[in-house]
Design brief:
This protein is α+β, with helices and mostly antiparallel strands. It folds into 3 domains: about 5-115, no CATH class; about 130-265, no CATH class; about 275-440, no CATH class. The chain has helices at about 5-15, 50-60, 75-80, 90-100, 145-155, 190-200, 210-220, 235-245, 270-275, 280-310, 310-315, 325-350, 355-375, 380-395, 400-435, 455-460, and strands at about 25-35, 35-45, 85-90, 105-110, 115, 165-170, 175-185, 230-235, 250, 260. The strands form 2 sheets. A 5-stranded antiparallel beta sheet has the order 1-2-4-5-3, with helices on both faces. The protein has a 5-stranded antiparallel beta sheet with strand order 6-7-9-10-8, with helices on both faces. A hairpin with a 5-residue loop joins strand 6 and strand 7 (about 175-185).
Length: about 475
């Protein structure tokens, strides 16, 4: 729908679109620009007041209005408005979206166009290191909930004219800004085109949970796929590293997490800490994390299988240091400890940082001892459960660790019910679930292991020196 050249009709249309005066944060102002009437509208809190005051003061200055009547709105914009971020628009849809996004609009009588003044400012927290991706050395900045800040953090590291940010709006009601970041010339054009088509084809009311909601809309997962199918990062240096390798970063406004596409299982094993240490040390800790995957997945189910269904092996290998326990008792102990560790981990994660340290001490020293005294657990089970918890916490991705947690609970249940055949059958089902985990764009979740590409696989398994790991010397998936 187009604007009218009559200011009165445009004001009526504005009042039909916006809840004026019911909504207190919508601010309007009647202006006189010489002999020409004007009308301004904006959102209180989204506009920088000092800039608006300067603009209004200039526009109403008699020295600016030697010509008392505005004859050409485009010439007026270029000659009288000194603010850099100003543009004309004649579409109500475009004007409404801009006003609700932060810019304000100035309507002038006699013209079917409005002047958009982008003097917006957003409430934003300070840039700080993300809690989930801390490093002992390296940068301490992280993405925040304001998109412009996030693009600036990337642009600050990649000062290349090839660095591109394409903007689009998603959500019929929320109109959430989503930016696609990529390096022109390095990105896979086919994959980029497919992503744009998918984003444009989304039919959704709003992105309630930001980047997470967008992930679930782009990739349809079944209930038996607990592993993440997209890689998140809150670190600008990590996002820039992927961008230089030809990946795509999807930045969602109001979300501090950036999506990295395409995604493979090996991305969840990498940590920025690897690259702030020497290549040998970084490689060592990366391989340790790979080893933590099978330990976290099968240690408790294997312990349950050997102690309950093969007590001879358990006694021979000294898995239980005390007397042999009845099978149902061991099963009860395992489930009790798994539940207590889940409760402890969740409580520590959601509690204030002032109490999380104390909670860790209480959970480690008191709860475990009391559980043994009350015959809710045994020392051996607590030990194996603690090792399992440590291996889970050592994984770089929390989402990947939680997915393994679901697999482990499934293996524990099916092993307790069916013994060795349940354990083996459960492993087969887990493997099938991992293999069939969907990834956006039809890419392989196990690339470069399948399809096999040794040049790419070795850079993911080992931490190479910077001189040998430059994007121009690394693999390409085109």
């Amino acid at each position: 729908m187009e604007l009218s050249s009559s200011l009165e009709k445009n004001i009526e249309q504005i009042q039909s679109i916006f809840p004026i005066p019911q909504s207190f944060d919508i601010v309007t102002r009647n202006l006189f620009l010489g002999e020409t009437k004007g009308y301004w509208i904006g959102i209180n809190g989204f506009c920088r007041v000092e800039l608006l005051q300067q603009i209004f003061s200039d526009l109403q200055n008699p020295l600016y209005m030697k010509d008392s009547k505005i004859e050409d709105i485009e010439r007026y914009l270029n000659a009288k408005i000194g603010y850099a971020q100003a543009a004309l628009s004649s579409s109500w849809e475009d004007i409404t979206r801009n006003i609700l996004s932060g810019p304000s609009a100035l309507f002038i009588d006699g013209f079917a166009q409005a002047i958009l003044l982008d003097v917006r400012t957003y409430p934003a927290r300070n840039v700080s290191e993300p809690d989930t991706e801390r490093v002992t050395l390296g940068a301490r900045d992280g993405f925040v909930e304001t998109m412009l800040f996030n693009t600036n953090l990337i642009r600050r590291r990649i000062r290349s004219p090839k660095m591109t940010f394409e903007m689009m709006s998603i959500g019929r009601e929320s109109k959430t800004d989503v930016a696609i970041a990529y390096m022109d010339g390095s990105v896979n054009k086919v994959f980029l085109s497919r992503l744009k088509q998918s984003l444009n084809g989304l039919s959704v009311t709003s992105l309630t949970m930001g980047a997470k909601s967008l992930e679930e809309l782009l990739v349809k997962k079944r209930w038996f796929h607990p592993l993440p199918c997209m890689h998140y990062t809150e670190r600008p240096d990590v996002a820039c590293s992927f961008l230089m390798e030809g990946h795509i970063a999807v930045i969602v406004d109001n979300s501090p997490s950036v999506l990295i596409l395409p995604c493979t299982v090996f991305q969840f094993m990498q940590s920025p800490e690897d690259y702030y240490k020497s290549p040998v040390v970084g490689t060592y800790f990366r391989l340790i994390r790979f080893l933590c995957i099978p330990v976290s997945l099968i240690l408790m189910p294997l312990f349950l299988l050997l102690t309950v269904y093969f007590p001879g092996f358990s006694e021979q290998w000294g898995i239980l240091s005390t007397e042999a326990l009845p099978g149902p008792t061991i099963i009860f102990y395992v489930f009790a400890v798994e539940f207590l560790l889940d409760l402890f981990k969740y409580s520590a994660s959601v509690s204030s940082s002032r109490f999380s340290g104390s909670l860790s001490i209480i959970g480690g020293l008191i709860i475990g001892d009391i559980a043994v005294e009350l015959n809710w657990a045994s020392i051996e089970i607590l030990f194996y459960a603690a090792v399992t918890l440590l291996t889970s916490l050592s994984l770089a991705s929390i989402e990947f660790s939680d997915g393994l947690r679901v697999y482990r609970l499934f293996l524990v249940i099916i092993t307790a019910l069916f013994g060795i055949w349940g354990f083996l059958g459960g492993l087969v089902l887990v493997l099938y679930s991992v293999i069939t985990t969907p990834v956006f764009g039809g890419m392989s979740y196990f690339w470069p292991l399948y399809p096999f590409c040794w040049k790419a696989l070795r850079t993911l398994l080992f931490r190479y020196p910077t001189a040998s790991a430059q994007p121009s010397k690394v693999w390409s998936r085109h």
